[in-house]
Amino acid sequence: MEKVQRTKLKGFTLIELIVVMAIFSVLMAGALALTTPVSKMYKNTALAEKTYSYAHNIQEYIQGALEYSDSLYVYTEDKLGTTFTNDKKALAEDFRKKHYDNVVTSDDGTTSRPIKGKIYIMRLLNKAAGTIPAGQITLTEYSFDGDNLTLSSPERTMLNDVYFSSSDSNYSYSYTLGASKLVTVDTPTGGDEDSVYKAVKSDVQNLDNGIDSKSLSISIILDKDPTASGYVDVTNAAGVTYRAFKSPVAVQVANLPLTNINSRNGNTGEPRVIKEGTVFRKQTTVSPGTEGGEAGLGFKNAFNTKVDFTNDIYFVYAYADELR
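The structure corresponding to this sequence follows.
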C-alpha cells in the first residue's frame, strides 16, 4: 500500500504577526502623511473654485448696478453721520437735491414739468442686521417727482439665500473698499494653533485703500467658517487692528468701472436744465474737490480710507435713462 504524503500546514508565529503589523503600521502612517496635505490642497482648491464663482457673481451684480450710474456717492457707515445713519430717506433726499432739485423737462417742447426719476441705496453688510446675515447685499429704492421723494421699494436682499444656507457653500463674506491680497499672519491669541491664518495686506499694514472714480474696487473675502470663530480681530504691538481669517480663506477683487461718470472725469454731475421762476438755465457744476454746485459731485468719496470690517458700505446712485 502506498503511503499518502500529507503536507503539514503551518501557521504564522506570534513574532511574524507582530513584524507584519509593524510594517503595515509604518505604511499606514506614511499614507496618512501623504494624504493629509493632499486633502488640504483639495479643500483649498475646492474653496478657490467656489469663492471665485460666488465672488464673480457678486462682482457682476455690483458692476452691473453701478457701471452706468449717472452719479455715485460712496459711504462707509462711520461717515454717514447721525442723520443719514438713522434715516436712509434723508440720504436719498440729499442726493436728489444736489443733482435734480428744480430740474425740468418738456413733453411737448413748449411747456416744462419737474423731472421724475429713481434713487437707489445699495448696502454691503459686514455685520448682520436683524435677520439679514453679514455678507448680504441689500437695495432700497426711492422715486421722486420734482421735490416729492417717496419710498418705492423697501430694503430687500439681492443675493440668493443659498449663498448663506446651502450645506456645501456655507461661507462668511466680508467686504472692504480697494484692491488687496492676503498675507500670512501669526496665529492670534485664542486662535487654532493647528490652522494657518491670513489677513488682508492693506489691513495689516494700515494702508489707505487709494481709490477714486477711476479705480473703484471692492475686495470680497470669503472664509469657510460661517461663525465668528472663523476669524479673530487682532491688535498688534503697533496698535494696528486687523482681522485674521482662519484658512481656508480667499479674496477676490471686483473692479468697478464707472463708464458714465468717468466720461465726465468723475468730478461733476451731468448739468441739466433748471427753472427759476420763468427763467431756464443750465445747472452750475462743482469745482474739483468741492461740494458746491447744483449738478453735484459725479463721484463722492465719503468713506473711511482704512480697512474696517465693522463698517457697512453704502452706494447711492441714479440712472440717467430713468429720468423722465
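The first strand starts at residue 71 and ends at 76.
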